Amino acid sequence: MNSSPFNPPPERISFERSLRRLERDVLRMGALVEQSFRLSHQSLFNRDLAAAESIPLIDKQIDQLYRQIELDCAALITLQAPVAQDVRLLSAYMQLVRDLERIGDYAKDLAEISIKLFPYPPHAYLAEITAMSHQAQAMLAMSLVALADLDAEAGRQVKQEDDVVDIAYETFYQRLAGQRDIKGVIEPILLLVLVIRHLERMADHATNIGQRVAYIVTGHRS
């Protein structure tokens, strides 16, 4: 009996089932990265040691999912002879989870920085940098909603939010680099430069995720 869109062959049913499972894993990885980012924010701006100490375990889960998703994508591409649209989706997933994995790495780095900052009094700029972190987290959330809904327009909108983070980075960098007559150690200044750089890169990766969602839906690269 010939197959039709209403009566797909068994191999196509199996392939689509694998795709659904893969989508769930990607979204689960995104949720873990969001959690890690939120905890790194707490550790840095609320001086929350418990939050900082909880991140390495989450990062291991993120890395495990990342490796599994990459393997699953490669297997589906090489073994299942997918159609062009499926290849586009799987290729975008492989790139997208790399962005998620990098955001998770930066979150772990921020937690480590926060531990190094604990012995020092909170820097005067720290409260202002909080807004930069909130913006980057909001961008990640936007990109993951776009992914869950496969909403190309929502994915493209993430890029528009990136200007806020870029301007904040340039502003804080100039202010930190221009500080004079610093008494005592300069480690807190250097660590804060790393903080704003990490936040700027996290926002860039969130932008990439949004762009990849738009590509999945439209087939066009922005």
Briefly summarize what is shown.
Residues 26-113, 130-213 form the PhoU domain. With 222 residues, the chain is an all-alpha fold. The chain has helices at residues 10-45, 49-79, 84-117, 126-149, 152-177, 187-218.
3D architecture notes:
The model has no long low-confidence stretch (mean pLDDT 91). It is built from six helices and no strands. Helix 1 (10-45) packs parallel to helix 3 (84-117), helix 2 (49-79) runs antiparallel to helix 3 and helix 3 runs antiparallel to helix 6 (187-218). The protein has helices spanning 10-45, 49-79, 84-117, 126-149, 152-177, 187-218. It is elongated, with a radius of gyration of 20 Å. By secondary structure, the chain is mainly alpha-helical. Plays a role in the regulation of phosphate uptake. Keywords: Cytoplasm, Phosphate transport, Transport. Belongs to the PhoU family.
List the helices and strands and how they pair.
Blueprint: H1 10-45, H2 49-79, H3 84-117, H4 126-149, H5 152-177, H6 187-218
Family: Belongs to the PhoU family.
Main location: cytoplasm
Protein name: Phosphate-specific transport system accessory protein PhoU
User: What profile does the largest beta sheet have?
Assistant: none
- The helical percent reads over 70%
Overall geometry: elongated
Q: Count the strands? A: 0
Key descriptive features of the protein:
222 residues, mainly alpha, 82% helix, elongated, Phosphate-specific transport system accessory protein PhoU
